[in-house]
Hints:
Shape: elongated
Structural class: alpha+beta
Strand content: 15-25%
Radius of gyration: 19 Å
Oligomer: single chain
Largest sheet: 4 strands, antiparallel
Bound molecules: zinc ion
Distance between the termini: 25 Å
Amino acid sequence: MIHYSLVCENRHAFDAWFKNAAAFDQQVEMGIVTCPICSTHNVQKSIMAPAVARSGEDRSRPETPPPQLPRTGDKSGEKMTFSAGHPQQAQLRDALRQLRDALTSEADYVGDRFATEARKIHFHEVEARGIYGEATRDEVNDLVEDGIEFMPLPQIPEDHN
Ligand SMILES: [Zn+2]
């Protein structure tokens, strides 16, 4: 079972349990999930991370916190690209989260040593392994120039709350 904190279009917050993430998506799509206060079908997951139930444990405790999100550059005023209003936004955001979880779950967090570590791995100076971390724009440019393969971790705006 997965616990979701949900919020409706009228900003009523409520909780619900679902068999799994797919069941949640399916039930929302079918309009089965309704707000207990105003009965609207227009509900979505709130900014809270879903918690997975474990028998015998406190169900209100969230699962392990999301990994720290790398920020590329970190210059205020630097523009990023966003999307909004896509009809499948909720599903796509879930897919992005799954992608990010897949990329980070078996990887070492190396913080701002990302560029250094990525280079070491590329040149076989250390044992191959997955890493994730932060890099400046200059470091990113250098990695690209050196032909080192890497990719941005998907960032999910709601996680910043
Ligand atoms: Zn409501």
